């Protein structure tokens, strides 16, 4: 009995997400801008990873620091119940 031929995977390709901060350099990451920072936090209060929000590594690090500073100054909550 011959072995079955290997099948090629035909999955849907995802569109490569672009860093929103690299596209518009005028947009700054600031810990005081809580409305912008909330877009990068889940509904449970966790910081979204790069693969989800599409930021580059440089801006993801800056974003994480800004969110942590806003939490420390009580501008944003650590967790959402």
TrEMBL record:
One of its GO terms (cellular component) is cytosolic small ribosomal subunit. Keywords: Ribonucleoprotein, Ribosomal protein, RNA-binding, rRNA-binding. Pfam families: Ribosomal_S18. InterPro entries: Ribosomal_bS18, Ribosomal_bS18_CS, Ribosomal_bS18_sf. Part of the 30S ribosomal subunit. Forms a tight heterodimer with protein bS6. PANTHER family: 30S RIBOSOMAL PROTEIN S18, SMALL RIBOSOMAL SUBUNIT PROTEIN BS18M. Binds as a heterodimer with protein bS6 to the central domain of the 16S rRNA, where it helps stabilize the platform of the 30S subunit. This is Small ribosomal subunit protein bS18. It comes from Bianquea renquensis. The lineage of its organism: Bacteria, Bacillati, Bacillota, Clostridia, Eubacteriales.
């Amino acid at each position: 009995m011959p072995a079955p031929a290997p099948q090629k995977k035909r999955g849907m390709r995802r569109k490569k997400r672009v860093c929103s901060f690299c596209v518009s350099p005028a947009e700054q990451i600031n810990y005081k801008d809580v409305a912008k920072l909330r877009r990068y936090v889940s509904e449970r209060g966790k910081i979204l990873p790069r693969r989800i929000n599409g930021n580059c590594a440089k801006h993801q690090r800056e974003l994480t620091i800004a969110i942590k500073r806003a939490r420390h100054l009580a501008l944003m909550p650590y967790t959402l119940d």
